[in-house]
Amino acid sequence: MQQPAGSQEFDKLLSPRLSATTGTMRLAALVASLLLVSATALPAEAKQPRPPHARSVGSPNEGQLQGGKQLKSSSSLRSVGGHRWGVPELVDMLTRSAAKVAKSHPGSVLTVADLSKRGGGDIDGHKSHESGRDADVAFYLRKGKTAFVAPRFAKIEEDFRAANMKGVTFDAERSWALVEAWLSDPSARVLQIFVASHLKKRMLEVAASSGASESVRRRAAEVLIQPKNALPHDDHFHVRVACPTRSESCENFAKVAAKPKAKSRQAKSKQSGPRPRAKPQASTRVKDISSSKR
């Protein structure tokens, strides 16, 4: 059917406009597709807000933990504590050191008890562990020549036998390997390792005989300590790491309670007031009460 002449002229005028509109729509669709592909290609961490940096606040015995990391069990580490949170430097050091000892001593499993609560703060049964930088770690043990994992912390006697565990002894070689791994960790800096004196001496002997460097042995001699005025750490290590970076309000060492200041004699005399004068008595000497004990 033949179109009217007017209609044919109208189509000729409209065609370029339709072509331009179609091209614009196709270009817009192409741009939208490119934007969609670009968005889906972004890594997951770029699309999601990053968690806040972990911070250790305050001191080990008066502190808090912000944004801590949870210690998890693995083939070479057994996490048994009720409080498993710490700064990433501590958690990663424990994980790496357990794997390192297991690699050089196949079958080794490190037992780790309490670190800190998720947000830090007081923990029943502990004087520290408040700021995410402390961990209680069991010694490596053996039964005969076989690696032995005890169900609980084992007290090690002066002769290196485990109390109330027949045939079980302190494994000085693997325990030293653990300490050496801590001291050489790439990210954590160990401040203190609380341990009984006889166990420290034995591990340093192993370090010398195994060819450990003088610098490592000297460092171990500094950080392996038995705290004064405390029960001997003869059933576990207590390891403490330094404040991580970007923890401006962190204090490396535990706060020591300040001793109450002694009152001066002048203050005492003001509180008690003037001493009453004793009445002189014939043939009787007045006793000097300042030399008597109260």
Topology:
Layout: H1 5-41, H2 44-47, E1 55-59, E2 62-66, E3 69-70, E4 77-79, E5 85-86, H3 88-104, E6 110-112, E7 134-137, E8 141-143, E9 146-148, E10 168-170, H4 172-183, E11 190-194, H5 197-209, H6 214-223, E12 224-225, E13 237-241, H7 265-272
Helical fraction equals 25-40%
The global form is globular
Q: Supply the helix-strand structural class.
A: alpha+beta
N-to-C CA distance: 132 Å
CATH architecture of one domain: 2-Layer Sandwich
Nearest-integer average pLDDT: 81
CATH class (first level) name of one domain: Alpha Beta
CATH topology category name of one domain: Muramoyl-pentapeptide Carboxypeptidase, domain 2
Rg calc? 36 Å
Question: How are strands sequenced across the largest beta sheet?
Answer: 7-13-11-12
Q: Strand tally, please?
A: 13
In N-to-C order, the SSE pattern is HHEEEEEHEEEEEHEHHEEH
Largest sheet: 4 strands, mixed
List unreliable stretches of 5+ residues. Answer: 10-14, 37-51, 278-294
Strand content: 15-25%
